[in-house]
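call fold(seq) -> tokens
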Amino acid sequence: MLLACLAFGGALTTARAQSGNDYQLVEPGKLTIATTSEMPGIVPQDGKLIGYDGEILQIIAEKLGLELNPVKLEWSGVIASVQAGRMDVLGGNVGWTEDRTKILTLTDPTQYFQNGIMQKAGAGLSKLADLEGKPVATITGFSFIPELEKIKDIKLSFYDTSDAAVRDLLAGRVEAVIADPPVMGFVIAQNPDWKLEFTAFADDNPDYPMLTGKGRQFVLGLNQKNAKLADDMNAVLREIWTDCTVREIGARYGMSGDSWFTPGSVSPRNGIDRPADWAAPSCK
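ret:
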């Protein structure tokens, strides 16, 4: 029986590795990943990937029998590179939006999040109205920028990286940074002497769904011609949600609260890029 189980396991691994021949890959046998290399997203280190989505992609690649080939890009070019087929997959705190479903195939969520404001401790910013007339930093290409631009008299500055935006916050050139919540949380946890804090938006405003929506989803994105790879990646994601591996990974990067692993009461994807009766995964 032991030999039979080992043989079955070997056959499963071989079948998964051979399935890579059905994928539309930049390089055969390799998963080429577009990444901004920001923690805690996707960062190459010693031949492996670290960061939340990085560890997930490491698991996916191992189970599908693919090598990893991370390529560092500025965020402004990440989506276009996958859409054009120059990269196979993107990730690292990429939020699901309906517009993105029109140009990419988006996986099941890797985790959930709510946007908010990074600020100096004690600044007291928690609502959209608190940003009116203030100098605010954000990252070029982020999906919520049109909503930020609707805030009265806001003075937006655009940056290629979160690191540059945070430096200007510390220097007093801006009063707030609106960027990836996991990145902001990681920066704060790693640098307590900077005396910064992240506050989720207190608003629940349907006119600002990307900024104030709760239970929004982080996903991985693929070229729309790569349906087989997307299906197999989703199968692995279902496994690590079912056994709560996602929580174990999250704990290593300061994401230990239920909000990271609990979907919102209403999924925006149902009837758009998922069936009407689709149930978003969770780990309680």
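The two ends are 35 Å apart (CA to CA).
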